[in-house]
Amino acid sequence: MKLFACPNCDNRVYFESVACLVCQSRLGFDASSLSVVAPSQSDGSSPKLSYCTNSTHGVCNWLTSAEDRNGRCRACDLNRTIPNLSQPGNLKAWRDLERAKKRLIYSLVRLRLPLQGGASGRGPLTFDFAHNTTTGHFDGVISINVSEADAVERERQRQIFGEPYRTLLGHLRHESGHYYWMVLIEGSVLLTEFRNLFGDERQNYQAALAAHNGGAVPPDWQVRNVSAYASSHAWEDWAETWAHYLHMIDALDTAEAENMEPRSGQKWASRLEALLAPLWPSKKHDVYHNETFDALIERWIPLTISMNCISRSMGHDEFYPFVITPAVRDKLAFVHRVIRDRAT
Predict the structure, then answer these.
(1) What Cα–Cα distance (Å) separates residue 303 from each residue in 160, 169, 222, 225?
(2) SS (H, E, C) 260-278
(3) What's the total number of domains in the chain?
(4) Quick one: pLDDT at residue 211?
């Protein structure tokens, strides 16, 4: 996530900001410019911006054009189902769900990926946030059980499934991978390469998941997959890899914006970086579009190692409890290439 500044006083503000703490200016996020601006800001050539109607519930700070018919922002307009707000706890859960979803949509917009299906003929990316539903994806609809917004319940589920990592944003990034498999891979010339890397998606999906949940996990899954769950089926391998690619570029973007990226642990590189330190702030890269995959992974590995060390020094679990093997690297490179080649 890049840095944002108040358009009135230039004070630092954040992606979720609704007001500047210094000058008290009202603020919101404009998806068309990927910036935090004042709601009424207009240069005369573009429509006046106002808050999304969901701002009345305190769940959205995105802005929308007054010309929009329903008053919902680009992200909230993708919702098909929201929790029943008359039930206790659902408003807070929805806020947490929207906070995570907005970060997903931010990345998808920056990557210029289609939210409406694009040339694939598929329907729009759609979200259901509800109780008594199974977290997953079906035909363009991402369903998230509202209980996942409860940190205690989420941790309980993580332990039940033996996962090293479980977050709302992780769920959403993973499930979006299923959507973009349909949009970018299914029926395309990439299908053969996909099968060579991830396996044959024509394998019985339900049977594969049942076998995985029953404990049928390959003993050497770490060699080929980024997670144990990824070993269950080609679709899950793709979705897990897709999610990790989104993790990687968003974290790298944030680290660079905060001037905290270690780049490399090699001594010669460290000395060179020290000499170039005065010039470092001017050397910025758009990780969403400009850098090669090799450059990204060379930056990602030292960053995760450093963050893992910091996390352990604070008594927490590892920041990034995963290993990028050569096979996983090849899969991530494929995701990178697919996104770069097919983004609108």
Answers:
(1) 29, 20, 21, 21
(2) CCCCCCCHHHHHHHHHHHH
(3) 3
(4) 94
Contacts 24+ apart (CB under 8 A), 298-305: 298/264, 299/252, 299/261, 299/263, 300/248, 300/251, 300/252, 300/324, 302/262, 302/263, 302/264, 302/265, 303/251, 303/252, 303/255, 303/261, 303/262, 305/262, 305/265
Q: Are residues 126 and 208 in the same domain?
A: no
The whole domain housing 84 covers 75-184
Q: Of 161, 184, 207, which marks where a domain is finished? A: 184
Q: Quick one: pLDDT at residue 253?
A: 92
pLDDT of residue 101: 97
- Do both 35 and 125 map to the same domain? no
Q: How many CA atoms lie within 13 A of 28 on its CB side?
A: 24
Determine whether 174 is exposed, middle or buried from the number of CB atoms within 10 Å of its CB (0-12, 13-18, 19+): buried
In a shared domain, residues 202 and 302:
yes
Q: What is the pLDDT of residues 296-321, one digit of tens each?
A: 999 999 899 998 999 999 998 888 88
Give the residue from 74, 106, 135 where a domain finishes: 74
* Backbone phi and psi for residue 136, each to the nearest 5 degrees, phi listed first: 170, -165
Query: pLDDT tens for residues 180-212?
Result: 999 999 989 999 999 999 999 999 999 999 999
0.70 cut: is pTM over it? yes
SS3 at position 2: coil
